[in-house]
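Narrative of accomplishments. A recurring question from our advisory board has been how the design workflow behaves on a single, concrete structure rather than in aggregate. To address it, we present the structure tokens for one chain from the evaluation set, followed by the sequence designed for it. No filtering or post-editing was applied between the two.
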């Protein structure tokens, strides 16, 4: 089978297959095409892919044109729709729940087989492909918060963990799934005061056991969310409903309760965002 790895046009630094993965596929007799420079940002240079048995192609259109299966990371960009062939297989984080009508209509018209990584489940209903990216996103959210809270970035100029005599930042996390759990771990590790909200009491019990009651937990209702975000220096949204658009659990009116200079990080944005003002 001919497999193709194009450059990610949307600016995503991730790449779907490493040279080691390509080597496993070529050893099994598959042909792998990699667009020139696809892995440069993450130091998977062309020569590494060539050493793994891949063939380097020099245009985006050629990768789509010669591949039975296109293996991407992020969703198809509008300019890529014209390159999709009839009955081609496209793998990516498609997030079709929030895709525009043109994208869906084009894929249906071309009878493309679309496999969304975010919907691949194992026998226990878990999401094994999405899981590691959720772990990364949760942990990175606190690094990003630390940077964005600096005065040159428009923040309040406070430390996540505080210093002696100065209390730590209040980090509110809405959603106690994989993303929220990892954001909680990173925030506690940085010394923050963490408030975790979720509708699932079992998840909140797990959070309390895992972190030995370090975070404050609460059932997520409109009132509890309003109370928490009014205290927050950082609010992290981490809600996922499989295959569906994320609900807006924080409305535009509720944002008026937040302190001036506080920060929002919406990690549900790939499914539409869980803050009403996210786009």
């Amino acid at each position: 089978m001919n497999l193709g790895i194009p450059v990610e046009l949307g600016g995503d630094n991730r790449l779907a297959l490493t040279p080691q993965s390509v080597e496993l596929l070529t050893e099994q007799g598959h042909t792998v095409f990699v667009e020139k420079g696809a892995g440069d940002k993450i130091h998977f240079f062309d020569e590494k892919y060539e050493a793994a048995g891949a063939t380097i192609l020099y245009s985006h259109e050629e990768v789509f044109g010669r591949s039975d299966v296109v293996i991407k990371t992020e969703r198809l960009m509008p300019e890529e729709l014209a390159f999709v062939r009839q009955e081609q297989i496209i793998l990516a984080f498609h997030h079709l729940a929030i895709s525009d009508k043109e994208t869906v209509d084009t894929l249906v018209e071309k009878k493309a087989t679309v496999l969304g990584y975010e919907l691949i489940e194992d026998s226990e209903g878990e999401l094994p492909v999405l899981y590691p990216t959720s772990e990364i996103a949760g942990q990175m959210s606190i690094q990003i918060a630390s940077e964005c809270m600096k005065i040159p970035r428009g923040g309040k100029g406070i430390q996540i963990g505080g210093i002696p005599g100065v209390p730590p930042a209040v980090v509110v996390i809405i959603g106690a799934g994989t993303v929220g759990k990892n954001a909680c771990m990173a925030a506690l590790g940085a010394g923050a005061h963490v408030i975790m909200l979720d509708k699932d009491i079992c998840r909140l019990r797990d959070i309390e056991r895992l972190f030995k009651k370090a975070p404050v937990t609460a059932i997520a209702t409109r009132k509890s969310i309003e109370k928490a975000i009014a205290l927050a220096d950082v609010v992290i949204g981490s809600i996922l409903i499989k295959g569906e658009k994320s609900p807006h659990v924080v409305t535009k009116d509720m944002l008026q309760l937040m302190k001036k200079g506080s920060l929002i990080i919406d990690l549900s944005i790939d499914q539409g965002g869980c803050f009403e003002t996210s786009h």
